[in-house]
Amino acid sequence: MRMTTVAVASTGIAANLLIGGKTVHKTFRLPLNLADRTVAGWPLEHGTSRYLRNVALVVWDEAPMTPRLAVDAIDRYFRKLMDNRGG
């Protein structure tokens, strides 16, 4: 069985080193100015959202170097995308 994956990185330089890699900001439509309740992401019916809904694995290079607010915003996006309202 084939698994759909996406490779992202916090910086453009690191993303260029990944096969098919993109920045976190580009992949998840993450705004540059982040706040506590920022939600990243494309509209739910956008083609990118439909693609991300089927991704089984996100390979995130340099994830520990990503600001917490960015990780939180992407988490909120995935919860909304997958319709998972849990904690």
TrEMBL record:
DNA helicase Pif1-like DEAD-box helicase domain boundaries: 3-84
Broad enzyme group: isomerase
Biological process annotations from GO: DNA recombination; DNA repair; telomere maintenance
Keyword ATP-binding: yes
Catalytic reaction list: ATP + H2O = ADP + phosphate + H(+)
InterPro entries per record: DNA_helicase_pif1-like_DEAD (IPR010285), P-loop_NTPase (IPR027417)
Name of protein: ATP-dependent DNA helicase
